[in-house]
Amino acid sequence: MLAQRSDETEKAEAVIAKAVQAVGGERYLQVRSLVGRGKYSVLKEGAVVSFQAFVDVMVFPDKERAEFKGGGSHLIQVNTGNTGWVYDGDQDVIKVQTETQVANFKQAIRTSLDHLLRGHWKGSATLAYLGKRPATLGKRNDAIKLTYSDGLVVEFEFASDDGLPQKAMYKRLGADGEEVKEEDRYAQFVETGGIRSPYIIDHWTGGKPSSRINYESIEFNKPIPDSIFAKPANIKDAKKSWN
Description:
Order of helices and strands: HHEEEEEEHHEEEEEEEH
Radius of gyration: 19 Å
Strand content: over 45%
CATH superfamily: Lipoprotein localisation LolA/LolB/LppX
Shape: globular
Oligomer: single chain
Helix content: 10-25%
CATH architecture: Clam
Strand order of the largest sheet: 6-5-4-3-2-1-13-12-11-10-9-8-7
Distance between the termini: 54 Å
């Protein structure tokens, strides 16, 4: 069994190595921060029910500032490791994130493609190869699995031919205690400075499309001041643009 597990791990590591090369190799691995801009849509029954512009700032491995504007709403959500705050423009208040909100952010990090490819899971999860799965147009995907020490399981699929990421899948507990299937699907890879990124990320919940991230631009390794992650002293400071 030990030899079998070692073989599975080696195959999974090879899939990851191929994927890293597909998205930019060492240039990708040297990215320390990114600034993404685009549109975020919430979907229901196949229709767009809300549509907002966003600016997403990430400093790896666990800092993020996401700002959404549209339809008269303004929301800023900031996370740094185990802490976070939110500016709610509808109520014009700054709130400290709840334990649930922080937990949701940490789960989003652990199920993300970057977390996998950059190896930030090492030491807290085990890796296994699951085999090939059917994909679109007669193609096949290589499937791998991350199993975290607390029981969270995330499956990733990569195109067998070119190694590009295709999807990530995991389960969460819904409000009624039932397991809900969550899935991210990656599409429209665009190259910027030798790094290829999915400009469309469709999220599916319970087998139905629930949201879409559509990037318009992504900048890598732009200097990011630590101050944009700090909880602001007042509403005026919260509303200030960071760049």
